[in-house]
Predict the 3D structure of the following.
Amino acid sequence: MNLTFSAEFYPCGMPDPVPGRAGILALEAAMHALPDELKGDCEAHTTHHFAPGLYARQFDLKAGEVLIGKIHKFDHLAMLVCGEMAIADEFGVQRVKGPLLFNSKRGAKRAGYALTDATFITFHPTDETDVAKIEEQVIAPSFEALDQFLLEDAKCRGAE
């Protein structure tokens, strides 16, 4: 099973195709290769929120900071609460301004550049409160792992 993407929600319209996935993965690899003293502390910018049946991960970014998103196994809500960002995905780059709530499709991987100070939140339905366990539930470590998850999920549901 090969994962395909659709552009269900793009507030500025569907941009021209660009080599988004490869570019985002290359940016992520380059960021991981930086010396430790140049790397930012992602957890210092992250706040975890829990409510019955819901987990929200909040990222507070300063202007000029870059955020690389994870690959999610399931559709979920995401929100740019405030600020302005340039967000790149497989379909291109969009400049968006908060408040903006959207449905983030499973399998999407994004890179965000904060044009101003910004707050971005993802929302995931779960009763779990252990962040590591939540990541196991909702995050695919790679596109290959996502394809495998989707194949197994389809088999469990009786689809081929």
Q: What stands out?
A: Residues 20-33 form the longest helix (14 residues). DSSP finds three helices and eleven strands in the chain.
